[in-house]
């Protein structure tokens, strides 16, 4: 197989309501749709999921688009039989993971159309349906947060991730877990807490209230401190996100016992193939991999 045409289509999604985290507030999500055409006529689509700034990840939309232009000629000359080969080629050309993921995603799509199989089948899926979750941004007050949780439950989601920078932004967690026992609740602090005794008390309180997982609680993602906190057994699982930008980061975190869960986003890791490797490595270490959203 060979790519004969690459087309980048920038677009912007206006959110129905602003999405607030410890990093910033998003009202307009700018993205890039990527369209590739193979020599056999099959067309595949991917998406560059990087952001406009570096508040969350080191690669921006401008970085991704510029690198795509740099990669185009080499990609068109590449002969390949499977998307894994494209992923390997890209890994040797750039460290920018979002653009690599978008190209590989489009190749998987075109490859699936070529062989007549869905992506789920190609990846070895064993289930027809998969429970999914939704993230709820920081709300104006506790009542608004509770209303959003009700909407998530009514829509049939099985997991809800609540964004926060402090406990007083959250509803009564024990009460909502009793009211919605079908849902799993986690808290995403997005590096909001300073490394203080008060912050440790906050994490211990979350565990006492039945929360089993928090994402990146402390400023600067201090892996050694995370390892120390987990060793006490008094805090929820700590899942890495902001500090994971490659499969190599996953490997390093496992060696340092920096976390017992990993929020994996194929855009940040460099694509589907890289995410598969990360999942395998995390499972072999006996820790929890789970797929997040960008």
List keywords for this structure.
globular, alpha/beta, Enolase-like, domain 1, single chain, 294 residues, TIM Barrel, 2 domains, 7-stranded parallel beta sheet, 11 helices, 3-stranded antiparallel beta sheet
Describe the structure.
There is one protein chain. The protein has helices at residues 61-77, 83-91, 97-115, 119-122, 142-154, 173-179, 197-208, 223-232, 247-255, 266-269, 272-284, and strands at residues 3-20, 25-38, 43-48, 133-136, 159-163, 184-188, 213-215, 237-240, 261-264, 288-291. The protein starts with a strand and ends with a strand. The strands form 2 sheets. Strands 4-5-6-7-8-9-10 form a 7-stranded parallel β-sheet. A 3-stranded antiparallel β-sheet has the order 1-2-3. The chain is globular and about 60 Å long. The chain contains 11 helices and 10 strands. The protein is of the alpha/beta class. It has 2 domains: 3-121, Enolase-like, N-terminal domain (Enolase-like, domain 1, 2-Layer Sandwich); 133-291, Enolase-like C-terminal domain (TIM Barrel, Alpha-Beta Barrel). The longest helix has 19 residues, at 97-115. Helix 2 packs antiparallel against helix 3 and helix 9 (247-255) runs parallel beside helix 11 (272-284). 40% of the residues lie in helices and 23% in strands. Residues 142-236 form the Mandelate racemase/muconate lactonizing enzyme C-terminal domain. It comes from Weissella viridescens. Keywords: Lyase, Magnesium, Metal-binding. InterPro entries: Enolase-like_C_sf (IPR036849), Enolase-like_N (IPR029017), Enolase_C-like (IPR029065), Mandelate_racemase_C (IPR013342), Mandelate_racemase_N_dom (IPR013341). GO terms for molecular function: metal ion binding; O-succinylbenzoate synthase activity; racemase and epimerase activity.
């Amino acid at each position: 197989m060979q790519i004969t045409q690459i087309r980048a289509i920038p677009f912007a999604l206006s959110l129905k309501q602003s999405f607030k985290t410890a990093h910033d507030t998003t009202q307009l999500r700018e993205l890039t749709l990527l369209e590739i055409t193979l020599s056999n006529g099959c067309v595949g689509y991917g998406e560059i999921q990087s952001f406009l700034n570096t508040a969350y990840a080191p690669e921006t939309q401008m970085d991704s688009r510029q690198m795509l232009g740099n990669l185009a000629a080499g990609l068109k000359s590449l002969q390949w039989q499977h998307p894994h080969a494209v992923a390997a080629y890209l890994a040797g050309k750039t460290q920018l993971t979002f653009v690599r993921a978008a190209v590989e995603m489009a190749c998987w799509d075109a490859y699936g159309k070529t062989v007549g199989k869905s992506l789920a089948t190609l990846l070895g899926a064993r289930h027809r349906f998969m429970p999914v979750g939704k993230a709820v941004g920081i709300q104006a007050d506790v009542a608004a947060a509770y209303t959003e949780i009700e909407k998530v439950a009514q829509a049939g989601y099985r997991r809800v991730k609540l964004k926060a920078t402090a406990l007083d932004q959250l509803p009564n967690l024990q009460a909502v877990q009793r009211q919605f026992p079908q849902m799993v609740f986690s808290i995403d602090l997005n590096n909001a807490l300073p490394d203080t005794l008060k912050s440790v008390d906050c994490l211990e309180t979350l565990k006492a209230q039945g929360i089993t997982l928090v994402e990146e609680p402390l400023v600067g993602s201090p892996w050694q401190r995370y390892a120390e906190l987990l060793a006490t057994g008094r805090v929820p699982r700590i899942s890495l996100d902001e500090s994971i930008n490659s499969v190599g980061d996953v490997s390093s975190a496992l060696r340092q016992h920096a976390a017992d869960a990993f929020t994996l986003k194929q855009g940040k890791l460099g694509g589907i193939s890289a995410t598969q490797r990360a999942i395998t490595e995390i499972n072999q270490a006996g820790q929890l991999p789970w797929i997040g959203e960008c």
